[in-house]
């Protein structure tokens, strides 16, 4: 492997201009990855598509559906870890929880206190994923999970689309 240089996720991602040519399917894919633990700029692609003429309502719907699907992967991870699941994903989560420390504890406390409605906060950068995983670990039922995560993520994409449309 010598001579290949540093291989990172960013080096494997296509150029953003290429992603824009993928249109709505590309937006769905990027939003789904962004809803999981992969840090990709789904908001930038949404804004570019809206600015390029894609109907904002359509773009918001596609991005929200992809992002919620990605969030479901974290929800399942949380449920699995809470049920005693281990493996590489369980160890990854344990390291992340240890690294996040007090922030993760606050997110879990908020989710315990407010239940499923706390998942509206899943739109937040950095701690949004923690809310999603906490929802799974604390046993939030799937339907309320999807409902409140969809509201949070949909509102974020609505704000991005409105900003892009205002720039026209």
TrEMBL record:
Coiled coil: none annotated. Residues 40-162 form the VTT domain. The chain crosses the membrane at residues 20-38, 45-66, 72-94, 114-139, 145-167. InterPro entries: DedA_domain (IPR051311), VTT_dom (IPR032816). Keywords: Membrane, Transmembrane, Transmembrane helix. This is Membrane protein YqaA, SNARE-associated domain. It comes from Myxococcus virescens.
